[in-house]
Amino acid sequence: MTPAVGKDTMHPNLPHPTTTTTVTVAYAGGDERRGPLTMGQANMIRCILRDDPTHINIHDVWPVPEGTTVVAVTDALRALAVRHEGLRTTFPHPAGSAPVDQVVAAEGTFTVTVLDHTELPDDAAGYAESVARAARSGRFALDREFPLRITLLTVAGQPVYVALAFSHAVADGSAMAILREEFAELLAGKELPGLASLPPVDLAAVEASPAGLRKSEASLRYWERILRTGPQEMFAEPRGRRPGTDEEARQLTLRSRRGGRALAGAARRTGHPEATVLMAAWCSLVAHRAGQDSCVTAVPSANRFHARVARSVTTTSQDALLHLDVRVPTFDALVARTWGAVLNAYRHSQFDSVRLWEMIDRVTAERGSHFGRDVVFNDVSALPAPLLGTDAQDRDDAEQELAWGPPQTLPTRMLAFTYRTAPQLHISLWAAPSLFTPEEAEGFLAGLVLLLEAAASGDVPMEALAEVTRVRPAERGTGWLRVDGCWVSPDAVREALGRAVGGLPVRVQVTEASGAEPHLTAYIACGETPLTPAEAHRALTARIPSAGSGVLAPHRYVLVENPPTEPDRSDAWRRLEIIEEGTGRSRQV
Predict the structure, then answer these.
(1) N or C terminus: which one in the chain shows less Cβ crowding within 10 Å?
(2) pLDDT for 458
(3) Alpha carbon distance 142, 167 (integer Å)
(4) DSSP E strands: which ranges in 183-276?
């Protein structure tokens, strides 16, 4: 079928003289279907309707072999649309509501914007990446828009790159990698094998089955245990910010043959897979740097371990939440513990995202906390094709180098992608600048390699991590203590509670019983202001996401009429007549 070609216009904003052509590509041959959303789709659509599209949309760049024609490129794109139902899917819904169904079209059209250049910039791959990234702006119309925005970059009519932006409702990083691989095979004249993984409509049916619903319930229980007992923020320290305040962090990329050799050696010595050893090293170093007894990290790519979704072109973007206790004597013991913990996290990465967030809101209100998705570790090294042109950017001869890249708004404190583990370890890290200076971020990745090298030579005592990695733990100063498994600053609690109750005088007292964790008691001098412990708790909980680091609600609120004459003495507050006391927590932790 011959593509329809739109009118040529000049494109004035590109670095070289460029002609822009819009090519309309028709496809047909699929089946028309309708069904409920998958859990992954529902999760991402919730984010799409809420978040800035530049943050939630995703992009990729596909190189085009020399000698390929524009028609060959559009034919390959058409074949992918027919092959994968997810690319022919829209999500109809009334205005002001969220979709509940997906509709697969049997036929339709999509457009390809062809930018023809006399020549490309010296950094052609970087230019193509910037075109793809720019296409992320603007929210996808879920009910009607083709979920790919496609730009073909050509030089004198010869295709060089395809730059794409994807709706996260139909694709995630793994899906982009699958499409990238299949696109290359189609251009090479290869016949694609039959589909082995489920399309989204069928995946939704599996998830809605009795077994699928039991799996979702088990996942919610697993998450709730972590949210009730684990640290609410990994990086709780005076200079930290809460998750409600996004930061812009620059990309730091490690390419290290040393790291690749060390990881392979540590895996051979311990008898565990490289992925498990790398996860153990990551978690141990994160917990060490954060000064925590455990590491809580989201693992987004974990839920493709089952064959029915391994190569499904859809979004399976639901976190596996790994909670790894690092209180073991040696690194080898931690590696052994990591294997089971990772499998447990993977098994509990399928859930109803709406119910998950309802549970998170409920639990964090009861605990008087705010759970922060502080750490994200995404190992995509096992995917069938690299992401975002990393193959073109790799330099396999790099013994070890660290390079800084562009900034990105970070809704988390630490985000890492592992692109490759052999022949070099290739990791990109985005670390919140409020917590990591550039030197500290570089030291963290260099320390990861040092840990792997030490683990390749022999077992590493966990108490020697600072010496081995040269990474120093967080410095909290005086006054910080562990409460409910979290690092807490009573001074920060006092300041946040005082603001929450309109500036009333507040005193936070620490009670440390023998053999038990400390408890916090808040005294509030409310004067003529009507207030109850439950109201004080709700007011504080509402402020915690933006209150600064180290804030957890007190276990007990004590209301008095006026502050003592010596307000800095806890015993003076204890001698006051109590108006009312109680806890705002509806469930004790």
Answers:
(1) N
(2) 97
(3) 8
(4) 247-256
